[in-house]
Specification:
Blueprint: H1 2-7, H2 39-46, H3 54-62, H4 64-73, H5 95-104, H6 110-121, H7 131-137, H8 143-169, H9 177-189
Helix pairs in contact: 2-6, 3-4, 4-5, 5-6, 7-9, 8-9
Length: 206
């Protein structure tokens, strides 16, 4: 819990910039912008140390790529937690998966940036997933579906545990359960993940 509080600046020090990822500008899933990629969304992903390339950013804001993303976002639920979603909201035929592939296929975007941008637009349904978290978990074949199963197991026990951890840590309720999970995993491993120090995929016990 201490790592979680430190990340959000609740232990006396400065918060990590990622603490503002979900809430910057009122959130990427708020009314009026939930189905549109905005400049605030592109700034928000920078809080997680990635930058969407300039040409892709312009295309998302003003071009056909943005139009395609809006069509897909309209099909992706924004008012449900992953733990209570259906597998069909996350599988290979889902709008979320198609949106991920659309972004992933753009020049110099790839899977980390694609996932973070989608997590900004649907923070309750889609998780942040990067190389640090992948290293902790051992590169599962389908992170979304594996996490979905884990969150639903035993009467949604993990989901409730994450919400309880959020409350005990004093984190605002606007922070999603998925984000709590991501921060806990990332904080546990990001120092050891530095070049030449990382023990390898799936070797960290958390």
């Amino acid at each position: 819990m201490g790592d979680l509080r430190r990340y959000f600046g609740l232990e006396g020090g400065a918060a990590y910039t990622g603490a503002r990822f979900e809430g910057l500008g009122g959130g990427g899933d708020r009314d009026g912008v939930a189905d549109v990629v905005t400049a605030e969304d592109l700034v928000a992903v920078q809080m997680l140390s990635v930058t969407v390339p300039e040409r892709v950013s312009l295309d998302l804001l003003e071009g056909d790529l943005g139009v395609q993303m809006t069509k897909l976002l309209r099909e992706i639920p924004r008012d449900i937690d992953m733990a209570y979603a259906e597998a069909g909201d996350l599988d290979s035929n889902s709008a979320a998966e198609r949106a991920w592939h659309l972004l992933n296929d753009q020049h110099d975007v790839a899977w980390v940036k694609a996932g973070k941008l989608l997590a900004r637009k649907r923070p309750r349904l889609l998780p942040v997933y990067d190389r640090v978290v992948r290293c902790v978990l051992g590169s599962p074949s389908s992170f979304w579906l594996d996490l979905h199963r884990a969150l639903r197991a035993d009467g949604h026990a993990l989901h409730h545990e994450l919400l309880d951890l959020r409350e005990r840590a004093g984190i605002p309720k606007t922070v999603s359960a998925l984000r709590v999970c991501d921060v806990v995993l990332w904080m546990a491993h990001h120092e050891d993940h530095r070049p030449l120090r990382c023990p390898g995929h799936g070797t960290l016990s958390v």
